[in-house]
């Protein structure tokens, strides 16, 4: 997100974000960031600067989570990433939508996520699952197990950019609403 348009969009989103405050976790002087929205269900990966105990230069504009306590977010291994990259858009959507729905349900935002999920389903072309059908069963099970443990944001990041719509940002904003009162 380094283009001027992306920076402009990010700045407009951050404008509605609650003012950063100091946290009282094990990390000192860690201000909340844009990447912290929806912590822990929908936040981004933790900021390495905050994890190391130093100050993040980007502050509230940082795309990564500034909460001190962060459980590890599983990620795809090299073979899984290669498999996912070979999938067609339809196959990828077909693989991810059930996991996105399950994570939204676990986070208690399934009703709010339905708009985003319906948007994804509407864009899913009717294709054969040739790559998925050709995947060895053991690899497919391992891939699905990893996907099952990823949070919503990590799953959405696997989608092609054209499928990530404003409805997902609205969902993140909805989940972030309670944070304004917890700060």
From TrEMBL:
Keywords: Metal-binding, Zinc, Zinc-finger. A zinc finger (C3H1-type) spans 46-70. The keyword Metal-binding applies. GO terms for molecular function: zinc ion binding. InterPro entries: Znf_CCCH (IPR000571). Residues 46-70 form the C3H1-type domain. This is C3H1-type domain-containing protein. It comes from Symbiodinium pilosum.
């Amino acid at each position: 997100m380094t283009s001027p348009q992306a920076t402009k969009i990010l700045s407009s989103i951050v404008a509605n974000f609650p003012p950063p405050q100091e946290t009282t976790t094990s990390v000192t002087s860690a201000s909340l960031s844009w990447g912290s929205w929806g912590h822990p269900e929908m936040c981004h990966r933790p900021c390495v600067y905050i994890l190391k105990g130093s100050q993040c230069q980007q502050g509230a504009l940082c795309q990564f989570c500034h909460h001190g306590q962060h459980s590890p977010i599983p990620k795809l291994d090299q073979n899984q990433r290669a498999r996912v990259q070979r999938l067609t858009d339809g196959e990828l959507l077909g693989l991810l939508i059930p996991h996105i729905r399950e994570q939204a349900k676990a986070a208690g935002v399934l009703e709010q996520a339905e708009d985003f999920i319906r948007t994804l389903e509407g864009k899913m072309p009717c294709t054969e699952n040739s790559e998925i059908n050709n995947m060895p069963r053991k690899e497919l099970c391992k891939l699905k197990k990893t996907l099952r443990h990823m949070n919503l944001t990590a799953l959405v990041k696997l989608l092609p950019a054209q499928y990530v719509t404003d409805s997902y940002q609205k969902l993140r904003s909805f989940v972030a609403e309670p944070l304004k009162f917890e700060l």
